[in-house]
Amino acid sequence: xxxxxxxxxxxxxxxxxxxxxxxxxxxxxxxxxxxxxxxxxxxxxxxxxxxxxxxxxxxxxxxxxxxxxxxxxxxxxxxxxxxxxxxxxxxxxxxxxxxxxxxxxxxxxxxxxxxxxxxxxxxxxxxxxxxxxxxxxxxxxxxxxxxxxxxxxxxxxxxxxxxxxxxxxxxxxxxxxxxxxxxxxxxxxxxxxxxxxxxxxxxxxxxxxxxxxxxxxxxxxxxxxxxxxxxxxxxxxxxxxxxxxxxxxxxxxxxxxxxxxxxxxxxxxxxxxxxxxxxxxxxxxxxxxxxxxxxxxxxxxxxxxxxxxxxxxxxxxxxxxxxxxxxxxxxxxxxxxxxxxxxxxxxxxxxxxxxxxxxxxxxxxxxxxxxxxxxxxxxxxxxxxxxxxxxxxxxxxxxxxxxxxxxxxxxxxxxxxxxxxxxxxxxxxxxxxxxxxxxxxxxxxxxxxxxxxxxxxxxxxxxxxxxxxxxxxxxxxxxxxxxxxxxxxxxxxxxxxxxxxxxxxxxxxxxxxxxxxxxxxxxxxxxxxxxxxxxxxxxxxxxxxxxxxxxxxxxxxxxxxxxxxxxxxxxxxxxxxxxxxxx
Length: 583
Hints:
The protein has 17 helices and 20 strands. By secondary structure, it is of the alpha/beta class. The strands form 3 sheets. The chain has an 8-stranded mixed beta barrel, surrounded by 4 helices. Strand 16, helix 13 and strand 17 (476-481) form a beta-alpha-beta unit. The chain is elongated and about 135 Å long.
């Protein structure tokens, strides 16, 4: 064997081996460095997405806690469960403890589920000398070993009370009454208004406290909006909705941009807390000047889009006044026809009594019409819509059908009267409908007119002729007087069959009270016409007694009997009180 060549081969192999080792070490170093960089980058990304302050592994069996700082997940601190609770305000320590214990036994967390969708609660923790609001989120539970994996999220934009100094801070949300007053006083007149609505996805059972979720959303929105000029409120605390008013001056284009910004921030917050699989949401907004000075009307104008947005999967919608005038009119028209078609008018009755010596007689019944509608709050609003759509006769006909037959079938005696409030301009149309109403002629109808309607009439002769025509048809006409004497010609008083008055006396009125002295002058004049005078709003039995001793015999008042959908007899105790007045 040639030893020279053998030496060369060995030397070459040694050099090759050394180079190979160096390369392997270099590759390993690069791999480890890249892995650590990747971990660091992913960790930073995770922390940015979750915005967590601390992570805890809570061992309830041994009352031990491992605490991880989000800035350094490689190390942790051992502490007792008592130490963990001590960071919370004394008012909330038991609440946090009970919340953890209750959720440890949840059936839907009966086994370890890494990063499961979290359960939430809120608490105040002490940071230095002040208390700050945080969200506690359970991300996983191992019920076998009684372990709870917990994240805390600092709500940096959510004000709270300083428990030490009892310092008042700016409120993040307001009572509805405060918001309504500020809105209707014009505080937000140049700003914009938004309604945020959430809806649980189909076939999904939410395990969240939706109030907490709303507060998480509010905290997120506070981080992107002008804190000094916005106000959050809950129009209906039982609904998963958030109201937002911004008093900053904005154009329609800016409001449209704000809608997208708000939606995007909500999406980020929902995603960060694992809520996207449970809820969908939409935002509607508009410039206040395009909406209404009435808070309720404003809110309803925005809210009418919510259902359509969910049906069409729309993220957000801008309210435009021009586009909604026809829609609003259509809504009014549809609701009007709905009321008429479903007979959405209810007649309520209240007794009119006559105090005569030691007897209480039934003189008749006063009727009041209620409208079963969220849009039309009273019968006058419905009549106004009826004029707009030329459908007044339909309302009048329905009112008569709802009150006359029930009264006729349940009245106590043949001679009692049914008092129906009506507008002067509706008399002719009512007479046209009268032939279609069963038992109208036999029901002793009194159409009650308001004296205010005669103040603007240039020619009262036409009014006299209309009243006479009604009377010739077999009906009577009453006149309602609310605020003392009006300067109306005596011919009008003479043409009326009876007077209805509200003397507006205080509850503990006396004969020398200014209100009684003022009312007495009117009553003296009405008495001279020798027609029944009915007081319709006595506030106390002492007022009834004073008026009775002044010559008034007829009364209808809520203290005597409340309005009711049924004709009901007078309460015996009330009857006894009224009889005692005569003694």
